[in-house]
Design brief:
single chain; about 475 residues; 7-stranded mixed β-sheet; 5-stranded antiparallel β-sheet
């Protein structure tokens, strides 16, 4: 086992790009014995790497073809390896680290809770669990006033589907092809992207449909309004052909995350709500990635003025400091279980050590105006700068997003919109995006890369200076993408 790493005040200097080298030399951490050790520690790096390669089985990976980066410490929007290299975390790890690495309020909340009551079973009432549920209900739209806690996003979606099936007495669920809903049995079946393929068959009661994507419209639309109209007509046709009376739920990522940061065109989500009402279908909003401030709202559905029947969440609820997810439940769904037992549960549902940083998250958001700053930085800094990059770099086909959640779609030809790399590319086919990512990392930025896209999703607490510096690094890395066009 390796030492527990605690960033010290010396690490703070690395937030200035010009001071990165000096900070790496000065930075240190405290090991389990209380001894202070330099952050640049090749012996510790070797041990971490050896243990990982010998014993850790990694997700979504061919084990012999990966070489995970040993990470020593983190603070705010930055993390460090054992060689003292600092990286701006422009992916918020897995778009969950909304309040950044080692936020003192979240760390203190866990420490205080551990000192008082480390765990309690879900069937008992607990103060931090109840407070977090109340705070979530207060910011959820409409009458979504009850919260069922899970361990993460995948099981939140599993349980939301189970609730919909119980209430409607139907089995089938519709989800988008461009989607990711988790890696467990029903969640991976709901997922539309290629990670589903090798896990089939799983839950056979899932059907997929095409969602709106104006840049690559499947409906030959010439405007956002047409895309909304035609995508909704397609969805209704799928409902009809699949049998409306067999469909329990429609699940949609409010803003599609990993599969493109696809912001729904005006009126689309309202149209989904209307179709769900028309056919007696439960509307589930998957906000695992975009909830809790990512686009500048507590829940992204609030931005679009639509109220689903169920909202699933995880990630940003406590910035991933401990595993936590859940389902926010409308009165109609919740009341069904007033006298009928809900057949579901988890040992760690609403775990106090996970709920405590969740409560602290609300306090930080309110005290520091996080939602307002996310909207401001997105509209004033990120959006305009990415628009400039789209004009400057011929490899950029489109930029899109909201708040601190954006995608840069890279193409070989702006006219044909041919992607820089093929769909689901691997090996040599994916090499151009690999070179773009490598340019980012070499310059001190850890990017979020998926297919032919760079995603911009830094911690919501990132300083404006670091945000601009990260966008500058992406600007330079796009020169590498441009060079691919001439290759």
């Amino acid at each position: 086992m390796t030492d527990t790493l605690i960033p010290t005040e010396a690490d703070e200097a690395t937030t200035d790009a010009a001071a990165t080298a000096d900070a790496a030399t000065a930075a240190s951490y405290v090991d389990r014995s209380g001894a202070r050790r330099p952050l640049t520690d090749t012996a510790a790096e070797a041990q971490v790497r050896a243990d990982d390669r010998a014993h850790v089985f990694h997700s979504w990976s061919a084990q012999a073809l990966i070489d995970p980066l040993p990470v020593a410490a983190g603070e705010g929007a930055t993390f460090w390896d054992y060689r003292g290299n600092a990286y701006l975390d422009f992916s918020s790890q897995l778009v969950n680290l909304n309040l950044g690495h080692q936020h003192p309020d979240l760390v203190a909340a866990i420490q205080q809770q551990a000192g008082r009551l480390a765990t309690i079973q879900p069937s008992m009432a607990n103060d931090v669990r109840g407070e977090l549920a109340r705070r979530i209900a207060e910011v959820a739209p409409g009458d979504l006033d009850k919260v069922f806690f899970t361990n993460g996003g995948a099981d939140a979606n599993e349980y939301a589907v189970r609730m919909a099936r119980e209430v409607t007495g139907r089995r089938k669920v519709l989800s988008m092809y461009r989607s990711y809903h988790g890696g467990t049995a029903t969640a991976i079946s709901l997922t539309g992207d290629p990670r589903r393929w090798r896990n089939e068959p799983s839950d056979g009661s899932v059907a997929h449909f095409l969602g709106p994507y104006p840049y690559r419209s499947s409906f030959h639309s010439e405007s956002a309004e047409q895309e909304t109209e035609r995508a909704l007509a397609h969805l209704e046709q799928v409902i009809t052909l699949e049998g409306a009376s067999t469909i329990a739920a429609i699940i949609i990522e409010t803003v599609v995350g990993t599969n493109g940061v696809l912001v729904p065109p005006p009126g689309y989500l309202q149209g989904v709500r209307a179709l769900a009402d028309k056919y007696g279908i439960v509307y589930i909003a998957d906000e695992v990635m975009v909830g809790f401030g990512r686009i500048g709202e507590w829940f992204a559905v609030n931005h679009f003025g639509v109220t689903p029947d169920l909202i699933t969440f995880a990630k940003g609820v406590n910035s991933g400091y401990a595993p936590l997810g859940g389902v926010v439940i409308s009165e109609r769904i919740a009341s069904h279980f007033d006298t009928v037992a809900f057949m579901g549960g988890l040992t760690y549902s609403g775990h106090p050590l996970a709920c405590a940083p969740g409560v602290a998250t609300f306090e930080v958001f309110e005290r520091d105006g996080i939602l307002e700053r996310v909207r401001d930085l997105g509209a004033r800094v990120v959006g305009p700068r990415l628009a400039e990059l789209a004009e400057k770099h011929p490899s950029v086909g489109e930029v899109r997003g909201l708040g601190l959640f954006w995608a840069i779609e890279l193409v070989r030809d702006r006219e044909t919109r041919e992607p820089l790399v093929p769909f689901n590319a691997a090996g040599a086919d994916a090499a151009p995006m690999g070179r773009v990512a490598a340019a980012c990392k070499q310059a001190g930025l850890w990017p979020f890369v998926h297919f032919n896209r760079l995603h911009v999703a830094p911690p919501l607490v990132i300083s404006e200076e670091d945000l601009v510096r990260g966008l500058d690094i992406i600007d330079a890395a796009l020169d590498v993408a441009d060079a691919e066009l001439a290759a």
